[in-house]
User: What shape does this take?
Amino acid sequence: MNFCISNIAWLQEEDEPVYSLMKKYGFQGLEIAPNRISERIFEETSETIEKFRQSVQKHGFALVAMQSLLYRRQDLFLFGDDLSRKNLLLQLEKCMVLAEQLGIKALVFGSPKNRCKNGLTQETAEKIAIDFFCEAGQKALQHNTLLCIEPNPKEYGTDFINTTPEGLEFVKKVNHPGFRLHIDTGTILINQEAWEAILPEALGWIGHFHVSSPFLALPDAQEFHKSMALLLKKQEYQGWISIEMKQGIMEKNEKAVSQALEKVRDWYGNI
Assistant: This one.
């Protein structure tokens, strides 16, 4: 399997020591949040973006995925008015352009609070969302990347696509090659999902995979993850395994990242 970690787990000034840890534990890929390049990333020059790409490349890492696509964009809603939805699509396309510049092949659409149904029926919301993600998926393909929907449990503050089975069903309804399913183990654990049944069915629709704990705590649930790793191996999963966790879990982010890298490498690499 290919191992990756998201840089939301540490601060920009901690990049170099974390990169050393990634090499130590055999992690070949980096997932990024756009604001970790620059707080005003969509106003930056192509030279700044290329400089970041080269800074990662010199360490031998692949730039794998992007998350936090709607960072600080509380004004954009999937189920708002037409203007809000138009601006949401424009924001996603900015992320797709950035992904293309960096060679990133998967964009993770979580943003739970930006996709609340706001009183719409499930049928109406689903129709709006299918049309939206068909268009967004087409734009993703035009920029040589994939947009992946992340099921988020109700505990994260949304009421649209809360479970992995719901995510799989929705991706099948959209049925666009530029729109895929994102698997998140934190969601699976919170919902206590029957993942052994759903994962084999979902395999051909998966665009990205997060190893996470509920509320982005330090990865634990060792037996669950070892069983998940065995299933992925049996199903010949060829994608990336990416750690997603938050900052501030321990006094030093570097220590928390080190523990996460060691655990995930053990759980998913020794099978």
Observations:
- The chain has one domain: 2-269.
- Residues 82-102 form the longest helix (21 residues).
- The chain is about 45% helix and 15% strand.
